[in-house]
What we know:
Largest sheet: none
Radius of gyration: 29 Å
Helix content: 40-55%
Oligomer: single chain
Order of helices and strands: HHHHH
Strand content: under 5%
Number of helices: 5
Distance between the termini: 84 Å
Number of strands: 0
Amino acid sequence: MTDFETKLKDNQWLAGQQPGAADKEALESMTSCPDVKTHPYTFAWWCLASKFTPAVRASWTAGAGAPAKGGKAAPAKTEAKKDDVDDLFGEETAEDKAAAEAAKKKAEEAKAKKVKAAPVAKSIIVW
C-alpha cells in the first residue's frame, strides 16, 4: 500500500494520468477499501477506480499515453515538413502581409457598419 501511496501522491492513476493495466491489477488484488487515515491517496484512487464497471476496467491497457491537462489525448506525432514549421522569428511573407491587410480592411468595414442609432429622448414628467 505504501508503494501505491507514493505513486498516487503525484498522479491520479498508478499508470500516470490515465488508468492502465497497473490500476486494473491493483484494484483486482485489493480485497477491501484502504484506510483513509493511513493511505489518503490510495483511498481516493480506490473510490474512483471502483466506480468503473468490469467491462470498462478490461479496456484499461498499459499502452495508452497520458492525456494533456485538458483531458484530451495528445495528437499523434508526425514528421513536420519544412513548409509546415512556423518560423516565429523569420521574415513576413507576401501571403502573411496580404492576409493581415485583408483582416484589417474587414475590421474597418465592420466598424463603419456598426453605427449606433441616436437614443430616443423620452421624458418622465407626466402632466
